[in-house]
Write a structure and sequence with these properties.
Shape of chain B: elongated
Low-confidence stretches of chain A: 302-310
Strand order of the largest sheet of chain B: 11-10-16-15-9-12
Number of strands of chain A: 6
Number of helices of chain B: 15
Mean pLDDT of chain A: 85
Strand order of the largest sheet of chain A: 3-4-2-5
Helix content of chain B: 40-55%
Number of strands of chain B: 19
Structural class of chain B: alpha+beta
Low-confidence stretches of chain B: none
Radius of gyration of chain B: 34 Å
Oligomer: heterodimer
Helix content of chain A: 55-70%
Mean pLDDT of chain B: 86
Largest interface: A-B, 78 and 78 residues
Strand content of chain A: 5-15%
Largest sheet of chain A: 4 strands, antiparallel
Amino acid sequence: MRLLRIVPDDTKFDFMRFRRISFPMSALLSIIAISLYFFHGLNFGIDFKGGTLMEVQSKVGDADLAKMRATLGALGLGEVQLQQFGAPNDVLIRIAEQPGGETAQQEAVRKVRGALGDQVEYRRVEVVGPRVSGELLSYGVVGLMLAIVGILIYLWFRFEWQFALGAMIANVHDIVLTIGFMSVTQIDFDLTSIAALLTILGYSLNDTVVIYDRIREMLRRYRKMPMPDLLNASVNQTLSRSVITHVTVSLALLALLLFGGQAIHSFTATMMFGVVLVGTYTSVFIASPILIYLGVGTGRDSLSAPDRDK
Amino acid sequence: MLYFTRWKATAIVLTALIVCLFAVPNFLPEKMVQSWPKWAQRHVVLGLDLQGGSHILLEVDSAAVRKEKLEVVRDDVRRVLRDARVGYTGLVIRGTSVEVRIREGSNFDQAVDKLRELSQPLGGILNTTGQRSLDVRTEPGNLVRLTVTEPALVERIRQSVEQSIQIIERRVNELGTVEPLIQRQGADRILVQVPGLQDPTRLKELLGKTAKLDFRMVDVSIPAEQALQGRVPPDSEILYSSTQPRTPYLVEKRILVSGGDLTDAQPGFDQRTSEPVVNFRFNTSGARKFAQVTQENVGKPFAIILDNQVISAPVIREPILGGSGQISGSFTVESANDLAILLRAGALPAPLTIIEERTVGPGLGQDSIAKGKLSSYVGAAMVIIFMLVTYGLFGLFANVAVAINVAMIFGILSLLNATLTLPGIAGIVLTVGIAVDSNVLIYERIREEVRGGRTPINAIDAGFTRALATILDSNITTFIAAAVLFYIGTGPVRGFAVTLGIGIITTVFTAFTLTRLIVAYWVRWRRPQRVPI
């Protein structure tokens, strides 16, 4: 049986030359992403903004959004958003955080239940009070920082500081672009988004580390090779693995995206963007060439061979 | 890299097998598993998002705890100064302290000494920190300020949380649900998780009520309407009825008998009107107090007060000596039943506020399970086919390793009695991706070594050696992310972190041992002339 070869043997793409395009492009995209965050904003879910989210399913045929909107609008709960969610009889109701502290949120749910009555099945009700939402947000941000720092320290121990720094720049780049994606698509930004960001971080790093590992190996073996050539060779040698792995991860994600249902849709969509599009691009076009600028391999001849080999 | 001693090979296979076996109870009917020994019964628990149920986070009202504590201090100060016959003025609660002005400068020092005795060391006999319950300071103008210290308040809140947990347990158990989870979270919070609940309204009613029951006399010296105009007698207060329209009652502040003296409460029906009522019984001291009060006040109304609302204010027709009585007050069958539950379980030491609620109906849970299964199967099938197409026989090895890997994840999840959530299923699907990656790394390395001119066996050996170092590095970075997720996440997100973290561990294990073992035996068996990848 002839086996599939997605990437031919011994590719010799000049990835490093692309840095003259990829660096400005990434810089531009990052600036766009950051401006999007500030001017377009994220669609914060109730986890971070507080408020109420209800998923209801009409028991009497398709949901009449206009009628429900009128019914709920009359309750005086401020901004009430209705959205069809998956099936035509499924509706997602979002109620902004009510003024008046923790008990006011519960009161809002009671009113909605009263207004909709037995016409609908309450599939999901989530109420997050002001105190919890504030904590969840700070936990999320702190967690993201902690993860980056933890991974950095690990890389610093395993490699040299330039690698750790390169990986961090690549990391921040990934997260910034993914946040830009979330802003453009206005996907709900909630706790699962933080989970998605952290997983993207892990995956992208995973990729970067595989290439860095190879670069380190090459640095030991070829002491006279110019850095761009060495980096090119490393990326090319690991290219087949990068592609195959990303195909498998995309296949798994695709299954989740298509059949996983609405509940994890935003999670998988974000992952798809972050892992497949950004993560791969970053490790090849950003994380590797940046090592040239960070001065990796400049003093190679002075390194003694034995203590660098394991 | 390809040589395994016999005992090492046996140990690897046994470890994998045993871990996989722990997953078995999940796939057998519950009846069958119940007859097994306890340690073998461990299984994966479905999260609330999959089986449906309510997650409710409650917070002890620390302001109320502080207020109550300050009121106790104020009453203590009054008692101490009265007993010591010290004249005082302006005994008030101001902010976080109690202030009192001693009238005569001559007995100021004596009064302060007496007041200092109110401050007790914290932490009982094991107190090593020297912290005390009150901070007593004097100020010019014979002013004494007693402040409840922060440690004392924290200690009181801790006690409140502990008592509340016990009371909530009693209340929730009355609902007759399976395996409710009630635990402390942080310093002042209680997490209540009740699986399989269609409508949490009743649960929230039961959790949100303090259920402080008092029996007090109605103050009949002036009509309530008149008192409302602004002349409330000092030892009385205005309370409103629990039913609409809200009727004001003027009731005495003095509590005759409280809910703490109840031994039992049951819902029932009034014999004459057949209205739903709650029948209660007092303990001995409660019965004695109640008998005495009713004897002295025949013909006068008294009020039954729940959480500062008057449920009813009947007139005492005859002395109640038996220690049991009846509360009526426009109940429905359900509300009478709930009140009985609340009275039996006892009053909360401080009010609790619901600060977070997440409820998933059973319908959605079922849907999520179905979708999780479908997407896992489709994802796994696609990955398996892709690996076979790409690596042939070695792809098959990889698929076997990944299958064992997933079985081991379930085994470890069962062993930990871990909770499986929908994001948790996503975590397993992603682990499949990572697990495949470890094989890809090894195989690609072998391909390279073959191209580099090594003999097949040499290439396989070198491929494993070099790839494993990379696998370790890349997995540790992902593991750090998973660990942070576990630390900061709650509920579903934590479920994701758990499966991802466990998945990484099993992935590294299978890559380092099982995959290597399978390939090693194949090499020994076939003595390959070329590597088939």
